[in-house]
Amino acid sequence: MSMEAISAIIEQVADSNPKGLRNKFFMILMYDTGARLQEMIDLKLCDLRISKTSTVTLHGKGGKIRTVPIMEKTVLYLRRHLSAFHQDVSLSSAVPLFYSEIHGQKKPLTGRRIRYLVKDYGVKARAICPNVPENVHPHLFRHSRAMHLYQQGMDLTLVSQWLGHANLETTLVYAHADTEHKRKAISAATPPNNLLHAKLSPNRFTVTDEDTLKRLTGLR
After folding, report:
1. Active site residues
2. 19-47 residue pLDDT tens
3. C-alpha–C-alpha distance, residues 27 and 150, integer Å
4. For a tag site, which of 79, 99, 183, 189 has the least CB within 10 Å?
């Protein structure tokens, strides 16, 4: 998703009440960290480090742990969330960062609930922003963050570490996707009556050899 689409989705959430604030912060943090849905659900207060260089520790697949930085604007929402849901609770506590209260008991948010909320916000956002995909789901935030980092110049090795990929080959999909995106942009920017249009060939702008792709992205 484009940043315009992501912003449109997040802006559908009114944060004037605690639940709205929680839902908005959940999506902001999910995008900022590139976390998987389950990694977000599993977050606990003790996974947070608030300082000049604030970070969050994510517990990924296979028991793998990684620590990623979070932006200052995200920290502002984090502080609001803590004030609303964890007032006077120590950051060393193992209580869930995101929860809902059911019959007086604090229960971690479920993946089913988050998927429903994200989809609903996506439908509302699409009504005012055509760039929003038809079917918005949590994993789109992770894919979008990874692509944006790559397009802003982050080396694929770092993107792989950020995402917690066990195999670097998995991250290459973003390089392939970006190549295809650029090919379509070049084609769209060249009118049919342009003399160069006849020379446009998808093969000219598509790199399918992974070894060549790795060399172009600094992995070889």
Report:
1. 36, 61, 139, 142, 165, 174
2. 999 999 999 999 999 898 999 999 999 99
3. 20
4. 189
